Amino acid sequence: MAPEFKVTPWEVSGDVDYDMLVERFGTSRIDSTLKERLAKYGEPHTLLKRNVFYSHRDLPWLLDLYDKGQSFYLYTGRGPSGDTHLGHLMPWIFAKHLQDMFGATIYFQLTDDEKFLFRQDLELEDTRRMAFENALDFMALGFDPEKTRIILDTECIKTLYPLALKVSKKVTFSTARAVFGFDNSTNIGSIFYTSIQAAPCFLESEREGRTVPCLIPCGIDQDPHFRVARDVAPGLGYPKPALIHNKMFPGLEGGDKMSSSNPDATIYTTDNAKTVKRKVGKAFTGGCVSAEEQREKGGNPEICAVFKYNYFLFEEDDAKLDDLVSRCRSGDILCGECKGLLTAKINGFLEGHQRRREEAKAIMHEITLDGFEW
Amino acid sequence: MAPEFKVTPWEVSGDVDYDMLVERFGTSRIDSTLKERLAKYGEPHTLLKRNVFYSHRDLPWLLDLYDKGQSFYLYTGRGPSGDTHLGHLMPWIFAKHLQDMFGATIYFQLTDDEKFLFRQDLELEDTRRMAFENALDFMALGFDPEKTRIILDTECIKTLYPLALKVSKKVTFSTARAVFGFDNSTNIGSIFYTSIQAAPCFLESEREGRTVPCLIPCGIDQDPHFRVARDVAPGLGYPKPALIHNKMFPGLEGGDKMSSSNPDATIYTTDNAKTVKRKVGKAFTGGCVSAEEQREKGGNPEICAVFKYNYFLFEEDDAKLDDLVSRCRSGDILCGECKGLLTAKINGFLEGHQRRREEAKAIMHEITLDGFEW
C-alpha cells in the first residue's frame, strides 16, 4: 500500500515519501550528473551533498544560460504566520549559498496577505508584524544588502498587482481547485492568492523588458504554486521559473516537518539557551528504554530527531557525522550526551544569529522593494 | 410566461422587466413617500421624477443619519472598456446632482483591472488609457474638484488591497458563483475582482476610523457586487453601503441598454455633430412605414428610441415632453422632424461637454486618490 501523506503549500502531514513526491509533482531528481555539474561553480553545500535539496525543475536549462553569460536572479519567501524557526532558516541558508556562488540578486517575498487569507485567527496587522521579525532572521544569514530586496505583499502590491492580474487571467477555477484542493467553501482571496506568489517569478523580466531567468529555492511543498506560474509563463512572454526543492526540516518530536503548531518541538531563532536545552532534552530519539539496554543494543539514528538535526544543519563534517552514527549504533554514546552536544551546537549558532539579527535592524530600511517603509 | 432577460454586471440582455428585477435582486422601489422625503433636500432631479432612478437599498436609513448631522460620501465608477457614451453619463449626472444637494465627497472608481480580467481582447495598457478618457468625461460634468477623488484600481491598489483582502476572506466561491454566475472555467482574477469593487464602500470608514455611511448611485446591473459588499460589511465592522439604482440607458436601435458593441447605435461623448446626426437619423422609432400612414395613424413613442432619449436626458421640461408625445400620437410631428430636434439638443449638449472635457485635463492631476499620476 502506498504510504498516506499530504503535501500542499498549507499542509504537510503523514509520513512523506520524497521519492514518490517527485513523481506525484512531476519534478526531476537532482542526480549525480547534475550534482557534478553544480560542483563546477563552487564547493557543493552540505544540504546538496546530503540530498536535502534533492529535486528541481529546469535547473540544467538555467545553468546552460548562465554558462553563456546570462545572469539569473533568485526568489524565495516566507508566509509570516509566526516566529521564525530553524526549519525556515534551512532553505534560506542554501539561498545565501546560491547568492554567493552565482552573484545573484535575491527577492524575498513575505506573504502577509496569504497568511491573513488562509488563517482564520490572523489579522493583517499580525502577519505584517511577523513579516518584519521573519525578515530580520533572513537578513541575519548574511545576504548582500546590495543584492537583496524584501517584498512585503501589502506594501509592494502596486508592483505585484499588474503581474498577478496577468497570471490570474490565465488560471481557471478548475485549475486552482485541482492544484490546491480548493472547494466551494474556499474564500475568493485564497483562490486568487497564487497569482501574487507567481508575480515575483516574472518581476525582473518585466522590469528589464527582456528575458531574465529566475531560480526559486524552496520547500517542495511550495511547488504547486510555481507549477501554476510555470504553466502560464510562456503565454505571458516570460521564461518559466526554475526551481530547486528541499525536503522538509524535521520536528523535534520526530515528525516530517518542524511546525509552529507544537512549540515544544520547534526551536525558534529567538529561543534562549535554557529553552533550547529543554526542548532538545525532550526530543524524540532512536534510543532504548534503559541506558543498560542501549549500551548493549545501540541506538537507531535513522528515526532520531537529534541525528536529523545534525544531518540537516548542525554537523557539516561528514566524518564526524559518520563517527556519531557509529558510536550511536554501538551503544558507545547515549541519547543524553548526544542531546547535550546538539544543544551546544544550536546555542552556539543562535548566539551569533541573534546578534546578527539585532544588527540587521539597521539596514532593514535599505533593502525593501520600491523603498517601502516598515 | 415570465419575460426572459439577463442582468449581470457584465451582461444586460433580453427585454428587461425592471419591476421584476427589484424582486429578483431584493431591492426596494423608490415610492412616492421616499420621493417626497427626497424633495425636502432640494428640487428633485428629472431622472428621479421620471423613475429612471427607481430602486434603492437603505436610502431612508442614510437620510435618517444625514438628518441627525451625519454626513455621507458618494461612490460610483466605470469599467473602462471603451469610449464614454451618453449612457455612461446618465448616472454620473445624477451623482453630480447628489454631490451638490448633500455637499458630499465622491469617489469615482475606474476598474481597469476588471475590464482587463473580463475582456479577452483588452490589455492593461488599453483599459488604463480608456480610464483617463472616461475620467475626463466624468469631470466635464462639473464635479467639485475639492470633493472628488478618482480611483484607478492598478494605481490605487495599495489603498484598496487591504480592504479587498478583508472582503475576500469572507466571500466563498459558492457565494461568488451564485451571485455572478461563475463556473469552473472562470479565471481566478475575475472571481476575486468583486473584492476590489467592494473596497471603496468602506474606504472613508477605514480612513476616518469611524462609521462613515456610503451612498452608491449606479446602474441596477451593478447591484450584485454591492449585495456581496453589504453582506460582509457588518462582519468587518463597517456600515452597509446604501444604493440608489437607475435603469439602463437605451440604445438608438431600441434595445434596453446602450452598448459599445453597436457603435452606430451608440453616441459617444467625442462624436462630432455630423456623426450624431447620422446616428440619430438611423435610430429606431415608433413611426409608420410611410409619412401618409403616420399622419393618419400617428406614431408610438413608447417603443421609440428618440422619445426615450428625450425622456432620459434631453427634454427635462415635462410640459414640452407631454406636448411632443401628443404631437407624435396625433401624427402632427413625424420622425424626421423629431430626430432633427433631438440631434440639435444632443449636439448642443456635446458642444459644451467637449469644451469642458478639454478644460478638465488641467485638473486631472489634482483629483487622483493618493495623488497617483496618470
Task: Please provide a written account of the structure.
The structure is a homodimer of 374-residue chains. With 374 residues, chain A is an alpha/beta fold. Chain A folds into two domains: 5-249, HUPs (Rossmann fold, 3-Layer(aba) Sandwich); 263-357, Tyrosyl-Transfer RNA Synthetase. Chain A is 51% helix and 11% strand. Chain A contains 17 helices and nine strands. Chain A has helices at residues 18-25, 32-39, 46-49, 59-67, 86-102, 112-118, 124-140, 153-169, 173-180, 188-198, 203-208, 223-236, 273-281, 291-297, 305-314, 318-329, 335-360; strands at 5-8, 11-14, 28-29, 53-57, 73-78, 106-110, 148-152, 214-219, 242-246. Chain A has a seven-stranded mixed sheet, sandwiched between helices. The first copy, chain A, has a two-stranded antiparallel ribbon with strand order 1-2. In chain A, helix 12 (223-236) links the parallel strand 8 and strand 9. The longest helix of chain A has 26 residues, at 335-360. Chain A starts with a strand and ends in a 14-residue tail after the last helix. The mean pLDDT of chain A is 95. At the A-B interface, helix 6, helix 8, helix 9 and helix 10 of A face helix 6, helix 8, helix 9 and helix 10 of B.
Task: Please identify which CATH superfamily of the largest domain in chain A we are dealing with.
Answer: HUPs
Rg of chain A is 21 Å
**Helical percent range of chain A?**
40-55%
Number of discrete helical segments of chain A: 17
User: How is the quaternary structure best described?
Assistant: homodimer
The termini of chain A sit apart by: 50 Å
Task: Tell me the number of strands of chain A.
Answer: 9
Number of separate structural domains of chain A:
2
At the fold tier of CATH, the topology name of the largest domain in chain A is Rossmann fold
Structural class of chain A: alpha/beta
Q: Please identify, by name, the CATH architecture of the largest domain in chain A.
A: 3-Layer(aba) Sandwich
User: In CATH's first tier, which class of the largest domain in chain A applies?
Assistant: Alpha Beta
* Fraction of residues in β-strands of chain A: 5-15%
Which stretches of chain A are poorly predicted, pLDDT < 50 over at least 5 residues? Answer: none
State mean pLDDT of chain A (0 to 100 scale): 95
The largest sheet of chain A is:
7 strands, mixed
